[in-house]
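Write out the 3D structure for:
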Amino acid sequence: MSDSEISASEAPATKKPILQVLIIVLLAALLGMQAYATFFRGGDAAEKKGPNHGKPAAEEHADGEESGHGKEEEGGEHEGAEAEEGEAEGGGEGGHGAAPAVKPTVAVKDLTVKLSDADDDRYVKLSFDLEVKNDQHKTVVAASIPKIRDAAISYLRNKKAAELESDTSYIQLKRDLLNASNQVVPRKLVRQLYISDLLLQ
């Protein structure tokens, strides 16, 4: 056998170990990359899934019921508070957006009183309505109509025509009649006074 034949036969034998080493290195690198990706991606996924990840389904369901129940209780309390505010603002007969309830009134009609003008006979003819809170108060105020009429007449008899004809007299007249009415009504139940007729003669 010649030297050339010996070297040709030894060449494949030396290539095989090199290929084996390269394959092992490539496999190790692939496995390392796989392990790296699994480790870090797995940690991110666990963080994204949140605190309930890994809990049994029964525990998650119980947690959901407790949180939902708490929200329902908070919502119920909030709705109850809104309903109470609606009753307070709407007089108990309507909530937000409802027109305010019309309050009961008691009429005091056809007062004709001679004024205190010395030079001339001047008279005032007056009717007004007294607003109260409810029908129970209306009954009490209606029973006091004779006293209210007497208080109004006593007030007007001390007035002169010029005092009732000024620019500010109308507002002052309403205020004074309201005060005079509450002086003779128990517990000052009259809330507002509305003049329905006013005539000076």
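Residues 155 and 180 are 8 Å apart (CA to CA).
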